[in-house]
Write a structure and sequence with these properties.
The chain is an alpha/beta fold and 443 residues long. The chain folds into 2 domains: 163 residues, Aspartate Aminotransferase, domain 1 (Alpha-Beta Complex), CATH 3.90.1150; 235 residues, Type I PLP-dependent aspartate aminotransferase-like (Major domain) (Aspartate Aminotransferase, domain 2). Helix content is 41%, strand content 15%. It has a 7-stranded mixed sheet, with helices on both faces. Strands 1-2-3-12 form a 4-stranded mixed sheet. The longest helix is centred in the last third of the chain and has 26 residues. It is globular and about 65 Å long. The relative contact order is 0.16. The mean pLDDT is 94.
Length: 443
């Protein structure tokens, strides 16, 4: 891998979104133009891999267009549709039936009359699925994560959170209290030290410990039982975000909470429908009806947003039913076969992958410059995949996050690996040309 200082590289291969998070100037609108200038140059040079659109949905092979209308097509490892339910006949039928029964709009907050028979049934299904007492629905997964934290935590309380927790959890924590402590990723001992520190000076206020069932950038998971015991020891509450593993992992689809035999043991389980359950929306499941009712009226992203549309509620409910069936078990088996095949083929091709087997297969690139060069190559070669770079991951640890579906074929998996291998080699060669241009004969 080639090392290069930023001064040796064109502007489109350097810089990050982090540099534009805080900008200066008295004109709120004028001062953001520096970001647009940098972004526009990356657009023009083919180094902006975000905000693409499809014209036929997230199928295992599809065509995509970027913000400038440039179209490419190929095998799709960029969509979050782990069990391939987005185009499932039963899911489509549920959506059409919901339109016929309810129309297309909830037309109200859950606190008023935005709920439907399907949304009430969905809350009950999720509670039973997770071994919890009650569930409250939210319009998005982000709203569920943010809203649960902001709804329960007050300014004098404390939050002890895994350092790599999702942005919705971090933003919710920042909005709720200044007393936020990040523990080292997956390290229960680090969480213990913060809990000891907090309880050593404050035995009056609450503590919320926050982690994820499966982390989406590293495909790894915490030891949930250890965190449950810590919370019991220090009179804290545990919240686990299961957005990426619920439904897709484990023999019965209960994700890592089920695989670690912790069903019904976690205080708050928050999740999203957007990865496995073919819908937008999110939920918070609790072991207490009191918590459910409190969140209904004090979690503002739910209280002051329209409820899930009837279509979303019906689709998510039908998806849970499929997940909790023999068909769901077969889909998870197909998904895991594809996951293992992709990981094995990538390693055999000389690539490095992160974490444990899950629908998220992250392929190491390294520097942002190399990753952007590779990203431009794979688009032309026929692979749809998402580049993840700083600040979403540490600087110098850019990667492609391949997202596997149950209906990917072996041919599509082999094609994706072949393209990544060729694109990586081409990207390295291109970077070498930039960093160490060949000597040219002087005329």
């Amino acid at each position: 891998m080639h090392k290069a200082s930023s001064s040796m590289l064109p502007a489109t291969l350097t810089g990050s979104l982090r540099e534009y998070r805080v900008v200066e100037g008295s004109d709120l609108l004028k001062r953001i133009e520096c970001f647009h200038d940098w972004q526009s140059q990356r657009f023009q040079d083919g180094f902006w891999p975000y905000s693409r659109s499809t014209d036929a949905g997230p199928k295992s092979a599809c065509a995509v267009a970027d913000d400038m209308g440039r179209k490419t097509d190929g095998v799709n490892f960029g969509s979050q549709d782990y069990l391939s339910l987005s185009n499932h006949p039963a899911i489509r039928e549920a959506a059409h039936a919901a339109i016929e029964r309810y129309g297309v709009h909830s037309a109200g907050s859950p606190a008023f009359i935005g709920n439907t028979t399907h949304s009430i049934a969905l809350e009950k299904k999720i509670s039973e699925f997770l071994g919890m007492e009650r569930t409250v629905l939210f319009p998005t997964g982000f709203a569920a994560g943010f809203g649960a934290i902001k709804g329960l935590v007050r300014s004098s309380d404390h939050i002890v959170m895994d350092a790599l927790a999702h942005a919705c959890l971090q933003d919710g924590a920042a909005a709720a209290t200044k007393n936020v402590y990040l523990f080292r990723h997956l390290e229960s001992d680090s969480a213990r030290r913060w809990l000891e520190h907090i309880r050593g000076k404050d035995t009056t206020n609450g503590i919320l410990v926050v982690t994820e069932g499966l982390f989406s950038m590293d495909s790894d998971t915490p030891r949930i039982a250890e965190l449950v015991e810590l919370c019991r020891e220090f009179n804290a509450t545990l919240m686990v975000d299961v957005a990426h593993d619920l439904g897709a992992l484990g023999p019965d689809g209960r994700g890592h909470i089920g695989m670690q035999n912790m069903l019904g043991q976690v205080d708050i389980v928050m999740g999203s429908f957007s990865k496995t359950f073919a819908s937008n929306g999110g939920f918070v499941a609790t072991r207490s009806r009191a918590v459910q009712q409190y969140l209904r009226y004090f979690s503002t992203p739910g209280t002051f947003s329209n409820a899930l549309s009837p279509i979303q509620a019906a689709v998510a409910l039908r998806a849970f039913e499929i997940v909790d069936s023999d068909e769901g078990k077969a889909l998870r088996a197909s998904l895991m076969r594809n996951i293992l095949s992709l990981r094995e083929k990538l390693v055999a091709a000389g690539m490095e992958v992160y974490g444990d087997p899950s629908a998220i297969v992250c392929v190491k690139m390294g520097t942002e410059a190399l990753a952007r060069l590779v990203s431009r190559q794979i688009s032309h070669m026929g692979l749809v995949a998402n580049l993840v770079e700083f600040p979403a991951v540490p600087k110098g640890q850019a990667r492609f996050r391949l997202q596997v579906m149950a209906n990917h074929t072996e041919e599509q998996i082999a094609a994706a690996v072949d393209i990544i291998q060729k694109a990586y080699a081409a990207g390295e060669a291109e970077l070498a040309e930039i960093v160490e241009p060949p000597l040219r004969a002087i005329a």
